[in-house]
Amino acid sequence: MSNGVVRSDDERDPIPLNRRLLYGVVASLVMLAGFGVTGSPYHRVDPGPVIQVGPPAAGSWSVMTAHVRHSNWFQWAAAELTGERTIRGGGDGSPSFARAMDTAQTNAVVVAAQLAARRTPVGGTGLQVIDAGGMSGLRPRDILLAAGHGEDLIPLRTHADLQAVAARRSNLRVLVVPLSPGDKWGSAEIRRMPATRLAQIRVSPDVAATAHPLGAVRGPSAGLLLALARVDALTPGDLTGGRRVAGTGAITSDGTVTSVGEIAEKVRAAATARTDVFLVPAWQRATAAAAAQGTGVRIVPVRSAPEAARWLCATGGHAPIC
What pTM does this model have? Predict the structure, then answer.
């Protein structure tokens, strides 16, 4: 109060209260919007593209994938509200993921080469020839899996293994995965070689047998289907039995199938692609079966690539390995 004049709050404050509240709300919305469009540590997971592998035949082989997408905070919130699956961000662009894919393809090559030759995988990726030193029957990049006398072959994992086997015999039987001039890996073959010459060739335990890149697909989950498709390509007949065979599963050098991620999304991708059979790691059967309910996709749990091949043979596949 001054000079007997009483002023209201609105007259004393140039910005009325209701306008201040409005400005506060607008500022808060702007800040929220700015935060919402920033990247979150979460990814959204959806069924991904279907990647067909192997030459087309009466049936087909397809690798099922999941599409993992980066999301900002708004997209994460929307996914949570709608029930879309979200996961913490992974390192799918890291060098380790690239190595995992290379390892999966190498394992697929060596396992398929042995299955096509009707042999049980020896459980190792062997030694890769760097320089054959003029030895007849070997070429650079050939893979030496095992050596010995008779049917009792010893897996080769280090150069010391090769030297130890060579020291015992004048001649050896060597299990070889050959690389043809067209850069195509063939079926495993038993070759007789002089031990003294074999011990002198240059080999590496870091085997690389990658083939048929799958574009944007990362990680080891294509291993099982790559191995089976390679077996089918290396042998006459049709291991699929005319069916559209899909699946997922990592594979070790002895053919064991190991767990992978995003099973439910991959099953849904298989249903969308109208596949007949979905091969899945045995210990992930329940997740796959739940996702396949009502889709018509047959879930087949397997523990190894040989087991998967036997199931295909027993249910309509026809190939020399059956």
Answer: 0.79
